[in-house]
Design brief:
It is a single chain. The protein is of the alpha/beta class and 374 residues long. The protein has two domains: 4-192 and 358-373, Glycogen Phosphorylase B (Rossmann fold), CATH 3.40.50; 209-355, Rossmann fold. It contains 15 helices and twelve strands. Helix 9 links the parallel strand 7 and strand 8. Helix 2 packs across helix 15 (359-373) and helix 3 packs across helix 4. The longest helix is centred in the middle third of the chain and has 17 residues, at 144-160. The radius of gyration is 22 Å and the shape is globular.
């Protein structure tokens, strides 16, 4: 533990409100190492009101033949990136003190745009270059010029940062290869989930219940999960699949789809599930997988993005290369048929959470670097 002498005096946190909310436990852990930690939540632009945003998306959708892509036309552009950046910079400069460091979450705008007299660092889960390679809706641009203008803004954000904390080595590689950022400027620190402290409760197996987060059904591998589960039912007729996140499925034998659930309901599901599936095409550093491991639930994930850095193959779960319904079904059947293997993976998963993927450990790594930047 750092003592009072080594504490940083003033840290200001910036970022989009959903991202700030998601990292509340990280900020609480960081606050131990500074005298004052203040969060500046960017005020929404006029178009970010829920009703207006929905209307604009449907007005723009015919231009790009996609409601999801339409969202980018009035957000993912140089004008909005700079406008958001300048607005937050003004708020920072109106503070009654000068921050020692600004800690900025993700890459939708910069906390400081016009001047470089205040240092800022970044915490990143992904880059636009990676999103573009995966052809994700939020990486859509109307033309080459708007795309290049956005990338210029993003590159300036990375280039001017005093340091960058990446959640995964996968993101670090993108920063180096796609943006020419020096490796010495990047530290991989991981992330954690929606819990302050690791769970120490008991975990039992034998329910044959499988859990899947279908909040973004296609991107997270929903079709693959359903196809694999249909095969699992042929061998294990008592198996059950619970799909949470969105109410999207029609009646399928053995499948429950409660949609959005509370945190207490999710905890109950974790404790009563034998497996979590996350064979996503893209999921930067999934909190859902980390939260499952916290409750001792082994996970089957794809080898995309940062997932292989969370799950260690055949140690605390299964990492699948190019998963297919048959391959996924075989892995599910094998694990559900071997409670002792599940129990061993469960212990290993919880150990990784207790030693690495918790907010206290992430905060220690971050603050250890910040103290050297002073």
């Amino acid at each position: 533990m750092y003592n009072q002498i080594t504490k940083i005096k003033n840290i200001v946190i910036t970022g989009e409100s959903p991202y700030l909310f998601r990292h509340d436990f990280l900020f609480k852990a960081m606050s131990v190492y500074c005298d004052n930690l203040e969060i500046i939540q960017r005020k929404n632009q006029w178009y970010e009101k829920k009703s207006i945003r929905r209307l604009l998306k449907y007005l723009y959708a015919p231009l790009v033949f996609s409601v999801n892509k339409a969202d980018t036309l009035f957000q993912k552009n140089q004008r909005e990136f700079i406008a958001k950046s300048k607005k937050v910079e003004t708020e920072i400069r109106q503070l009654p003190y000068t921050p020692d460091i600004v800690f900025h979450i993700f890459n939708t705008y910069s906390p400081l745009w016009n001047n470089s007299d205040i240092n800022y660092v970044l915490y990143l889960d992904y880059t636009m270059a990676l999103s573009e390679k995966k052809q994700l809706p939020w990486a859509f641009f109307l033309n080459r010029n708007t795309r290049n203008d956005w990338f210029k803004c993003e590159h300036q954000l990375f280039e001017k940062a005093k340091h960058i904390f990446a959640q995964s080595n996968y993101v670090k590689s993108s920063l180096i290869i796609d943006y020419n950022i020096s490796p010495e400027k990047i530290t991989v620190v991981g992330a954690s989930g929606d819990f302050e402290l690791p769970d120490y409760g008991e975990k039992e197996f034998g329910s044959q219940q499988i859990l899947f987060n279908g909040s973004d059904f296609k991107r997270k591998g929903g079709d693959l999960v359903i196809a694999a589960f249909n095969k699992v039912k042929q061998t294990l007729p008592s198996a059950k699949l619970v799909v949470i996140g969105r109410k999207i499925l029609s009646q399928i034998d053995g499948v429950e789809n409660p949609g959005h659930i509370s945190s207490s309901e999710l905890r109950h599901l974790f404790l009563n599930s034998d497996l979590v599936l996350a064979p996503a095409n893209c999921d930067p550093f999934p909190r859902f997988v980390i939260e499952a491991m916290n409750y001792g639930v082994p996970c089957i994930v794809s080898d995309n993005d940062g997932m292989p850095e969370i799950v260690e193959h055949k140690v605390n779960g299964i990492v699948m290369e190019q998963p297919t319904p048959d391959k996924l079904a075989d892995s599910i059947i094998n694990l559900l048929s071997n409670p002792s293997v599940l129990s061993s993976m469960s212990d290993a998963a919880r150990t990784k959470i207790k030693t690495e993927l918790n907010w206290e450990e992430v905060a220690k790594k971050i603050m250890g670097v910040l103290l050297t930047l002073k």
